Amino acid sequence: MPHFDLPLEELRRYRPELPEPEDFDAFWEKTLSAAREHDLDARFERVDAALASVDVFDVTYAGFGGHPVKGWLLLPAGASEPLPAVVEYIGYGGGRGLPHERLLWSAAGFAHFIMDTRGQGSGGSVGDTPDPVGSAPAYPGFVTRGVEDPHDYFYRRVFTDAVRAVEAVRSHPLVDAARVAAVGDSQGGGITLAVGGLVPDLAAICPNVPFLCDFPRAATLTSRHPYKEIALYLSARRGREEQVFRTLSYFDGVHFAARGGAPALFSAALEDETCPPSTVFAAFNSYAGSERSMEVYQFNDHEGGGVFLQDVQLRWLPGHLRS
């Protein structure tokens, strides 16, 4: 597949002028304050996952609206002192899966929390968290659910769940609350960027080929889903473009990146038509933190760096999480 987006030298300079809502910060402050009116009620139930090297906990905590959100907490077996933690967010359509599917970070000696994504978990890895909130008409998928009002938008609930996930893992006695990082691929990368902009004291973030960035460009550049859902929605609901993109501006990874301060390791793939590289660089080039780096995979599609990127992360992240 040939490169279809801007040349790499232009990607490194690409900074779109995206309209930002004047009440962006107030919107998120009110959203998170409302969520915190509910007791976090983080519960960790130890389960037998037939894994000798990992202690597994089935987690439930209160997310957006006080709704119960599931997760897994994996600890190196027999851990007795507080550990640095990695909070992981899942790609589009997937859920927390089964404990044995994600052993990388606990094998590296970290506490590892995997958040279930509400309403997803039937595409790829399985999930266990329903989304009890309905929405107006939407194109099948998740990107246009409630997309004409930021208060009703699906990702308002997901991003709030994600912030509360950090709070939940920090509440566990075997987690060092001062050493928590966020990681994720694709949708998980977009959620990671949001959390990085909303939680000021993370130790590090690793957004890999992040989704949910530079919506105006993504919706008109790629014909792949999930961004294609926006175009298909607007093709049926003519004349709603201004309202739709205003809603999306409250959830754009570029705006969250402009508020991020933790050391950040990004990645982009130049043949990625799912999350086009210019949309990823839009967030990277806007990132406010003083320490940021980008891994570029010139001949890869949305799989990005795959296990090669994991190797980079395994060597980079400990430097920001070890005491």
Give the secondary structure arrangement, pairings included.
Blueprint: H1 8-11, H2 24-36, E1 43-47, E2 54-62, E3 68-76, E4 83-89, H3 104-107, E5 111-115, E6 122-123, E7 125-126, H4 154-170, E8 175-185, H5 187-198, E9 204-208, H6 215-221, H7 228-236, H8 241-249, H9 253-257, E10 264-269, H10 277-286, E11 292-297, H11 306-316, H12 318-321
Parallel strand pairs: 4-5, 4-8, 8-9, 9-10, 10-11
Antiparallel strand pairs: 1-2, 2-3, 3-5, 6-7
Kindly summarize this structure in a few lines.
With 323 residues, the protein is α/β, with parallel strands linked by helices. It has helices spanning 8-11, 24-36, 104-107, 154-170, 187-198, 215-221, 228-236, 241-249, 253-257, 277-286, 306-316, 318-321, and strands at residues 43-47, 54-62, 68-76, 83-89, 111-115, 122-123, 125-126, 175-185, 204-208, 264-269, 292-297. Helix 5 links the parallel strand 8 and strand 9 (204-208).
Q: Could you walk me through the main structural features you see in this protein, from its secondary elements to its overall organization?
A:
- With 323 residues, this protein is of the alpha/beta class.
- Helix content is 33%, strand content 21%.
- The chain has a 9-stranded mixed sheet, with helices on both faces. It has a two-stranded antiparallel ribbon with strand order 6-7.
- Strand 6 (122-123) and strand 7 (125-126) form a beta hairpin.
- Helix 2 crosses helix 4 (154-170) and helix 4 (154-170) packs across helix 5 (187-198).
- It is globular and about 55 Å long.
